[in-house]
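User: Predict the complex.
Assistant: Input components as received:
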Amino acid sequence: GQQVMQIPQYQHVQEGEDFTTYCNSSTTLSNIQWYKQRPGGHPVFLIQLVKSGEVKKQKRLTFQFGEAKKNSSLHITATQTTDVGTYFCAGTGTASKLTFGTGTRLQVTL
Amino acid sequence: DAGVTQSPTHLIKTRGQHVTLRCSPISGHKSVSWYQQVLGQGPQFIFQYYEKEERGRGNFPDRFSARQFPNYSSELNVNALLLGDSALYLCASSLHAPSYNEQFFGPGTRLTVL
């Protein structure tokens, strides 16, 4: 079945440093969504990408969908303590089922 | 408007018992999906319902079942509970099919099986 992996599993940065998480699917995706889950909370939708090579920005966050539609990335510029949480990508494959990635846990310290 | 609500918040059961989890979607949302999230992992898709019909099923045993009611609320049932069923069960609603639409998650039900 479809598998979606993310690297790294965990990253610890100092406030102000940049952060990137990478998402790789075993199959071609029709679209990809990104969610953030704060400790003890539930996933919250961030963005959806649909087109090959698409890049979208939300303030300090930049999302990219790969040309082959099998990978994606999330880059955060100048991290803040409010960015702490686990970031999940979730992709839709041929089965029209949303498969979540393994997640990247981000810790930010002052 | 209220967000997605789930009940109960926490639940403790013993092996072999049965459990029913409930979810109320955001008003106007016709799709409800259920996910199981084990500590430290991403949510795993269990079921999707849209317009009261099952539209998708994940790789879970037949002990797991669900349904959607005319008011679009949903129940997830798990029979013959195993220790491995201990997890956070998340319900998510979306306006249309969740694969292509933003999903709004509820706070989840934390199930502990002893």
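The mean pLDDT of chain B is 94.
Let me know if you want any component modeled separately.
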